Amino acid sequence: MPYVLLASGVLALLTTVNALWPRKGLLLLIPGFFTAWLTIELAPWVLVAEAAVTALIAWFGGLTGAAGLAGLLVTALGWAGLVVVMARARRTTVTVQRWSAELELDPGERAPSFPRSHVVLPFLMTRRSGVTRTRDIAYGDGPRMRLDVYRPAEPGERRPGIMQVHGGAWMIGSKREQGIPLLGHLAANGWVGVNVDYRLSPRVKFPDHLIDLKRAIRWYREHAEEHGADPEFLCVTGGSAGGHLAALLALTPNVPEYQPGFADVDTTVRAAVPFYGVYDLGALLDGGSKVFASAIERHVMGVRRADGSEAYDKASPAHWVNAGAPPFLVVHGSLDTLVPVEQARSFAARLRNVSAAPVLYAEMKGAQHAFDIFPSYRTARVIEGVERFLTWVRRAEHPATGRGPAAGSQ
């Protein structure tokens, strides 16, 4: 048993080291990402699980001899690293407070809190009190052109809308597993959320993904009132590839080539909150492996970059930055190994130099890609900050509009 404890301790230490300094090499990129992602956002649960395993091994004699003591020491080092990981997550509160300080809201007003029960028991995230969900509404002819609507259970005046776009490298992903904590919290505090699926590559090529989402905006304009939403007020959010598409939605309103057959529909959005998005596709391919670049060229874009650099420029939100852009809150993790944080820093700086609207940038210290998929402590604080930002946007346009009933807030 001492050698079992030693092996367990080495594994715990390696997992923690990867969470603090995630691996970026090609062979370890994907397993390193998943291991770091889960360890970072579930650090308290990882610590409890490792403590239980260590106690069990010790009970059966694992602490005997030099190997046992070495195992205990290595395990303790891993736990010390997990404490650092958790301390980094706690710094999210400071980051959120900083961006909230830039908003013109009553300083004495407390933003609605995310349910603590969902942070302790993440599987509860689909059961937000005071929120109803209508699934799989068709907004187009394709089998993937479906959306879910999240709205307050209690009837009320027309509410602001928010569209969530899932990620997955434009080739995988679904509304079933992304954006749920955010949409549930917003719906509990007076918003109507629309979680959208769209056609995926390699069946379709860009810009079909973007066109589908603009069709979803057309659906929203036509059907928002049926779900208690304001058809004239819609914001957009999304993560990774969804962050890329959300940014494009915000920066390309009413561009005819992206609205074939419905160019007369107003596809303007009032604000954008992209999470860990891709903003410069060319720079992403330059910094990635040849295998990744080839997959994007063949499966997503349908044209080699060497043969169609203009297509890659037009597929990049950075190309579309303009003075008329809506307010942006750009969120990214400092330890993102899939989409480098430099993408967000550069995009936010460029937006600030050009856009007449406010641009807020929030860099989550110690966060990996996709950190908000489930409701960790960090996710809860970020979601509260996003609600505060969107409330500010809403009030800037409608000064008399209050926050509204916070149905189900805990």
UniProtKB/TrEMBL annotation:
Transmembrane segments: 67-87
Classification via Pfam families: BD-FAE
Gene3D superfamilies hit by this protein: alpha/beta hydrolase
Keyword terms, alphabetized: Hydrolase, Membrane, Transmembrane, Transmembrane helix
Residues of the BD-FAE-like domain: 147-351
Coiled coil: none
One example GO MF annotation: hydrolase activity
Protein name in the entry: Alpha/beta hydrolase
